[in-house]
Amino acid sequence: MIKAERKAQLLENARVVFSNKGYHKTSISDIINKSGVARGTFYLYFENKRQVFESVLDELFRDIGDCIKTIQLGKGHASPIDQLRNNVRSVIALLLSNPETTDLLLKHAFGVDPEFDEKLNQFYNRLAERLESSLQLGIAMGLLRKCDTQIVSFCIMGTIKEVVASCLSDVQYRGKDIDLIVDEVLNFGSRGLITSEYGNT
Amino acid sequence: MIKAERKAQLLENARVVFSNKGYHKTSISDIINKSGVARGTFYLYFENKRQVFESVLDELFRDIGDCIKTIQLGKGHASPIDQLRNNVRSVIALLLSNPETTDLLLKHAFGVDPEFDEKLNQFYNRLAERLESSLQLGIAMGLLRKCDTQIVSFCIMGTIKEVVASCLSDVQYRGKDIDLIVDEVLNFGSRGLITSEYGNT
Amino acid sequence: MIKAERKAQLLENARVVFSNKGYHKTSISDIINKSGVARGTFYLYFENKRQVFESVLDELFRDIGDCIKTIQLGKGHASPIDQLRNNVRSVIALLLSNPETTDLLLKHAFGVDPEFDEKLNQFYNRLAERLESSLQLGIAMGLLRKCDTQIVSFCIMGTIKEVVASCLSDVQYRGKDIDLIVDEVLNFGSRGLITSEYGNT
Amino acid sequence: MIKAERKAQLLENARVVFSNKGYHKTSISDIINKSGVARGTFYLYFENKRQVFESVLDELFRDIGDCIKTIQLGKGHASPIDQLRNNVRSVIALLLSNPETTDLLLKHAFGVDPEFDEKLNQFYNRLAERLESSLQLGIAMGLLRKCDTQIVSFCIMGTIKEVVASCLSDVQYRGKDIDLIVDEVLNFGSRGLITSEYGNT
DNA sequence: CATGAATGAGGGTTCATTCAT
DNA sequence: TATGAATGAACCCTCATTCAT
């Protein structure tokens, strides 16, 4: 087996067991047994347990970052609100199509060690900042009502995380139409955000 | 020291170290050292590590349950929407006034073991169900727009969890007016939920 | 068993196996098996393998330091040369009466890790410096011939170390009269080998 | 690269890393990385780690053996004492000109395994026996005073080992005139330290 | 009630050696 | 000859739990 394949295989198996048992309950034995590989082999491809874990999540971090497009103004581009919605849609779709890694991120990522906690916080903060920029743009253009963009960006993120998490835990959701879920989330968020003379205080 | 006091003291110290380091990184030594108590003494009051952890969270589960009031109809009661809002307000206030336990719940509760994961899921599902009932009531009364109440209840829970979590992580938030945060969350949620001829699709 | 006894027991067994197999070939299992104690027990008394090793040698370092008396001048004291000889005699006697630890020091002390190598060098250098002082005093008083005191102090130390080491390796030496050995070493150092009529430059 | 060259290259690199880190702290990786050679290649030239180590020292053993000349009597030869001195001089010069291997021998040779410890002891004992023969000859010829030749031969070896070791550890010695060191050692051994007027019995 | 010494299973990691290519 | 991926025994250390005092 060529090196890249073996590494991918180990990474894949690590991903699965990590998301089943969490970081601390997962042992190297779990990973290598699932991979049918000797103990030492694991350490040919990864420095240590912590590093595989980080690799698994780094992949997701990158993918999430990639599917969020900075909002583009001007003709030829969709409306900023639609672009924001598309970003939300992409992220949800990405998360739901990677159930194991997403579960890992949402349930087992904190508590690995202080450094990784910090890394996680930074990741979420970066996402929140990008969201805030979009919100501020929307407000400036009169498309969104005024609000505390910082808080609201966490509201949006929380909405996405929780809905996705519930889909992953709940077998009855699996296979349900993603678009339906996304629309519901978007409606929840957007009807609260769109400027309107008839909102309430 | 009388039995109940000692147990409370251990529980309190356990709460603090658990929330600082998470379940797996916390050792019995951490708890007994902080408590100035011998190793064996710990096991006089708790069956095992897992049980203290559960006790800590059970307290929070109970408190959260207690501050959610079932919506009452009829004269002499506030409007159902205000009652819903009050519930949200109470929960947020409770969580923010128990930062350590809340951090424990939000960041370190999953991954202890499969049974406890299940218990957590059930707790969240029960909350979601109570929320759903309220939402269905609001819709039936024409106060809220039609929506997938299951999804929306997770949206609301996610909003609360994430905003609270961000407050706990972010020092700049600490001391900020809780009401301000609560209002922002309520506005985010309610303007999206109130029936309105002028909402967007 | 009281704490001090258990620690002494472990230290004693560690001393023996270390001197038999050297630091790297000795495993914690060797020490605990010899002690009839569980693995964890070892770590109740010592931080790690390295620390026991260091404890064993620290004891010897201290004893060696203690049996070297700074040379005293004036009436009521033996002649400086006799004091120097007494120091040599004491050290040799000490080393021969602690064969295991001495073997450990002479054969297995280097190579544990860079920090310990440095500590060892410092120990030997301190000894050499004390020897040098004595030599310089002897020269100043006209009792000893002029020489490079630094080199000569290592000559003396080497003489002692090698003779002691050979005694420890060689079963036929065991039990031989220590005084005989000491005298031979002292004669070697003080008179040299050349027959007096034929002294050279 | 021809076989002999490759083997020499590996041996040379092994020598360097062994003397830097000692036997146990040196890994095969250290040797092959330094040599730019694959892991398997190492085992084409040496049976195992232990064997390389032995090869490195065997070379030194041979060189040491070679530079000690059996004392020749009769006209046309230098005086036996000068021949003995020349042997000492040659050995010291050899050791100081091979600092790495010498360090390896003096600090890291014991403790590899019981068999090698035995081999080392035999090597030193053989040297001691050759020294003893010379000493006995010198005594028989009235050139040297009577003494316990066994002990004295270890005194001489210890003197040489320790002085050489101190030169290798101590940077200030490096580059110092070898002859100066050798003379000091020879003087120590032949004349001792006591000023001639006050020789003792 | 309280203590804390003792336990030992279990986890992460290293590394000399092998062998198919 | 040369390679380097694979192996797996062995090692150090941790820590939840027990129990004699």
Outline of the structure:
Chain A contains nine helices and no strands.
User: Based on CA inertia axes, which overall geometry of chain A fits?
Assistant: elongated
**Integer-rounded radius of gyration of chain A:** 20 Å
SSE succession of chain A? HHHHHHHHH
Quaternary arrangement of the chains shown? homotetramer
Structural class of chain A: mainly alpha
Please name the CATH architecture of the domain at 53-192 in chain A.
Orthogonal Bundle
Biggest chain contact = C-D, 53 and 54 residues
What separation lies between the terminal Cα atoms of chain A? 63 Å
Low-pLDDT segments of chain A? 192-201
CATH class of the domain at 53-192 in chain A: Mainly Alpha
- The mean pLDDT of chain A is 89
Largest sheet of chain A: none
Number of helices of chain A: 9
DSSP strand count of chain A: 0
CATH superfamily (homologous) name of the domain at 53-192 in chain A: Tetracycline Repressor, domain 2
Helical residue percent band of chain A: over 70%
CATH topology of the domain at 53-192 in chain A: Tetracycline Repressor, domain 2
Outline the structure in words.
- Chain A has 201 residues and is an all-alpha fold.
- Chain A has helices at residues 3-25, 28-35, 39-45, 49-67, 80-97, 99-108, 114-140, 149-169, 178-190.
- Chain A has a domain at 53-192: Tetracycline Repressor, domain 2.
- Chain A has 9 helices and no strands.
- The model of chain A is unreliable at 192-201 (pLDDT under 50).
- Chains C and D meet through helix 1, helix 7, helix 8 and helix 9 of C and helix 1, helix 7, helix 8 and helix 9 of D.
- Chain A binds a DNA duplex (21 and 21 nucleotides) through residues 1, 3, 6, 27-29, 37-44, 48-49.
